[in-house]
Amino acid sequence: MAQDQFSLRMRAYDAWKADVLQTLEDFQQWLDARELNESENDLRIYETLEALRKDRLTLAFVAEFSRGKTELINAIFFANYGRRLLPSEAGRTTMCPSELFYDRESKQAYLRLLPIETRREERSIGDYKTDPLQWVSMPLDTDSPEQMAEALREVVKTKLVPLKIARALGLYDESQDAQFKKTGELPEQVEIPMWRHALISFPHPLLQQGLVILDTPGLNALGNEPELTVNMLPAAQAVLFVLAADTGVTRSDLDMWEHHVHRKNTSQHTKHLAVALNKIDTLWDDLKDNNAINASIESQRRKVAELLGIDGKQVFPVSAQKGLVGKVRNDEALLERSRLQSLEDFLSDEVLPNKLEVLRDHILREVGGLLEETYTLLDGRLQQTSKELENLRALRGKNADVIQHLMKKSREEQATYLRNVEGFQSSRRVLQSQAKTMQEALSLDAFDTIINKTRNDMTGAWTTHGLKKAMQSFFDGARETMDQVAMHAEQTRTLIRATYRKFHEEHGLPAVTPKVFSVDQYNMELHRLLEEADAFRNSPVTAMIEQSLLIKKFFVSLVSQARSVFFRANQEADAWLKEVMNPLVQQIKDHKRVMEKRLDTLRRISESRDTLEGKINELEGSRGELRRELETLSRLRDTLQRPLPDMVDETAAPLAVAG
Ligand SMILES: Nc1nc2c(ncn2[C@@H]2O[C@H](COP(=O)(O)OP(=O)(O)OP(=O)(O)O)[C@@H](O)[C@H]2O)c(=O)[nH]1
Ligand SMILES: [Mg+2]
Questions:
Q1: pLDDT higher than threshold 60 for residue 161
Q2: What residue ranges line ligand 1, CB within 6 angstroms?
Q3: Which of 80, 261, 298, 496 has the fewest Cβ atoms nearer than 10 Å?
């Protein structure tokens, strides 16, 4: 059945992750056992392992109200419950954003609800997530779809509150109230959502494998809760925008698409955007033949693509409702007619493999270099050992003079080397002061200074123009900092490069290209936030009169996002500075030891010629050992770089990727 395809691939993806996880753990142990593990490396591997464990695939459903988001989610993912799991019958409007996922930390499946009143606080939803006590929690009984469906009805609940309260929460605005426009009378009571956000955790296999589904409410929620557009949607791997065939593309659909969903010029390399043209069953007509019906569906698809300015391939005509019924009743013909499969194929053929690639790139970026460095180091040791062995073999049958001469030469080499190491120590000090400048520029203190300045600019300047100026100056400040950091990083790298080259050329240490630290990614993220800010300024919601609360909210989520960009840049710079010299330091230590050992060997041979054969045997032994270690390391490297599991062949056992 159609759903199995996505599940199957999700399982293959999960198996791949488990395999990589195991490999990394092996690598970590391997390093530990050989005392090759610097604490920074340890941390890096640990963080990569954590990132793998926490990896999630988020799909967000966005649309105007009543287009069928919730029904689509029910049909694609939860048809196996044999009923509508999430409330999506007529008149059941989703009132708060709902995240469906699996919380490994909790033994009990749950529904957690954040009271709407928290909108008054200056805390982000992300922040509330770390504080379960602020949520109203209800257990979900996974053995009873009825109990679950019943509990999940909470997300459609509303309540009546006095006008003043609705205003204070930023949930009433007369310019949006049709009733007020008609009668000129303000309501006494206003209907508002009961909850601000819902977290739904239960052990569904897909969710257990890391799928997260974000269902959003259609009614103005994107404008009301800036955190959704600033943080949550950009973090999703795929956003599914839903339209309905019976309403076509309305003005408000277009507004939402332009202001919140479709961003031109934004880097969307990790993100997919697809449009579901839902409710095609309303075009089914018993009096028309199939060809005519298909032609009208095709023509709608083309029109939608044109209006939204996207490729027709990104538009998927479907019927969520018939798809759900088809699956529940095992009615293959109906399911096929619903065309749900093509949308599911898109998720499993495009979104999922792309996610895997992104994750693999991340892993290789984090620990791939470490593996290479370790390999280079051991390979360097192997070369040294072979050379040493050759030298010793050449000593067979040589007289005492030759050995004396060799000792003298070795001592001289050692002295030059030690002088260079001293030079190295002083360039290390230069490096440290460079590093300090870099870290200061990226510190959160520096960030807060930029923010405070902007905050002052913004106080009282709640006009669109004032807002534009303040935001522009904030982003200019942030960009300037990043540029400075980039400059320092490049200077630092040049210095390190020169040092590496010196040791390579003068002492034959293996050539290493030092790691690069780039701020490009962070600049890109800041740029995206700036675009987000522009879109927000230009959106119809911002034109509302009562906007200061909203702007404050927007600012809070924008700042928290930018702050996290700075924080990550800071952490990466920090880790980079700690690590970038490690391979060289390690090699210098290694080389020093090799030289000492050589002198020692020569001394012993000069005292007793019997030692020579013993030493040769010893070196042969360690050469064999090194070769074996390099093989192990290659195997680990191969696992990390192994081609993506073949997801095309449906008949292949999905778990075979581990072998
Ligand atoms: N005919 C038809 N009706 C559908 C289809 N999908 C959903 N509906 C109906 O459309 C209405 C809205 O569906 P929902 O899934 O609640 O829509 P939503 O986009 O989640 O709406 P909000 O939660 O209000 O934002 C319900 O009455 C559904 O039964 C479909 O494929 N065909
Ligand atoms: Mg809904």
A1: yes
A2: 63, 65-71, 88-90, 92-94, 217-218, 278-279, 281-282, 319-321
A3: 298
